[in-house]
Amino acid sequence: MNTTDAKKRIEQLKKVIAEHRYAYHVLDEATMSDSALDSLKHELYTLEQEYPDLITSDSPTQRVGGQPLPKFEKVAHARPMLSMEDVFTPEEFQAWLVRLEKVGGKAVDELFCMPKLDGLAISVVYEDGMLTTAATRGNGRVGENVTQNVRTIQSIPLKLRPAKGKKLPQRVEVRGEVYFPQKAFDELNAELREKGEPEFANPRNTAAGSIRQLDSTITASRGLAFVAWDLDGDFGQDNMLDEWKLMAELGFKPVPESKLFTRVEDVQKHWSRLQEKREGLGYWIDGMVVRVNNNALYQKLGVVGKTPRGLVAWKFPAEEATTIIKEVKWTVGRTGALTPVAVVEPTWIGGTTVQHASLHNLDEIERLDVRVGDTAILYKAGDIIPKIKEVIGKLRPKGAEKLEAPVTCPVCGSDVERREGEVAIYCANPRCFVQDREAVLHAARAFEIDGIGPQTIAALLENGIISGPADLFTLEAGEMVGLEGFAEISAKKLVEEIQSKKTISLPRFIMSLGIRNVGEQTAIDLAGEFGTLEAFMDADLEKFVAVDGIGEVVAQSIVDYFEQEHHQALVKAYLDYGVEVVPVEKKKDSQLTGKTFVLTGTLATLSRDGAKELIRAAGAKASGSVSKKTDYVVVGESPGSKAQKAQELGVTVLSEQAFIDMMRSV
Fold it and tell me: For the whole prediction, is pTM greater than 0.85?
């Protein structure tokens, strides 16, 4: 092969490899296997070693890390890399739109929305189509030259592709986010675990640290990726949607899940959808960027300080926030347990404004050393009440005193006690008013009675109309007329609702009793084992312990419950008042008996509760988390990390149809 032939072959190889890079990193299509691609790259490398004069800066072989740098040079940005204003609530978002209309002179009719990736902002500059410079944001005007490291990122083209029908400007700048794909981040931590080295906790910080390595071979080994969100180059485009399409043509992957909307309500729906999908995206996002689509209007709106008026980052509800503890109250639950609750300054977290935070028990107060006046970090997972993660000691006011447990019940004034082997403290009065109220409320929810809440129950108890849960079924409309919120029609409606719920399944009836340590799944297990209420109540400790999944603590709780006469009287009262407890067929062993299922994603033909009912009917259990003990993970649309964890642990993954077929075969 002579030089001319080698040059021709090298150009062919570069073109094929570049096409595959575009298909894989921009179009999410694998056009050849990794081993075949490696073979082409090896051939290219061999030819370039033989003909070094033919090596060009856009060659795929030049992505490998170069010699370590002594330091990073500074790079001045052609235009400042500005920051964004954050909004957190729908009200703040609406206020931003109002400001745009006021400054721009008219309502904005088109908004372009992009997920806000949790990464490091980078500017990539091309001269005559070739990558020349890559720089970090820095202070917005001057950043660090990280070109050598950025060249190692496969999703950043070394040479721009031609845009159909467009003349390539002499200078093109693309801005976007270098980020850590979730899979690559997990693989990196797995390698560190095997070596016994500390793992990385934060993907954004790790991405930033990786891009700022003086040794670019380290950057090359990290598996970083890049998405584009801004184009600076005159292609004749006049809006953000055009730029988004152009960046894909040029060889970049623009931010996925980006859409143009003309209605504010659709923007809000997209923001909500992204929150629901974020767990299964494969990369971390912390909000949604909303930008005025029209470029001329965007420029007209101008800049305030260091933030453009024409875009905002609508952040997802914070999972952590700081607040100040105003006081600590003790509440009494249906079992008589006293629970400390911190009253805090109103704080926006997890999508809602909260004023209370759980402190669990006295041990937790002592562990955190919580005091009134402290500045605390709250955290929230899902829809549960926020908890206090820690207090910031350096912000503690002088004279803040340690908290002490109450010695009397805050409701009835009775003594409190701490039972052997338990952390909680209890009101010693079994007839404490709050316990009665909570017991009635708990029963009403188990019987699925609509239209009755804590205030109504409190009024019924205070006026002596009822004295316990079973008394709900003796209510008459005339007794309720005159209570706050009840006239003749509303009272009659509630009584009819209660009477319509006299028939209840055995599992739900067991739930209604409020036995300590007996939750929904345990009640289902007990009902499935004993079949009837009589058999359940006649069982002894030994029989309860023998039930699969019922340990000695739960078994003892059940025995202790029925040893108290007023609990036996409660069951009798229900039956005397016409409540019918429907028996269940005792579990029959099947091939799924004792198996554990986990559901993830949205099921197309089944509700989540419906799927759980099928699982339980088959003698199996529905769990909320994946572990080595999990037998099957059922995957619906947009699954979360549970599907990935199942694969890592070797747990069998089922499609929705495969799950339905399995249930039908039982």
Answer: no
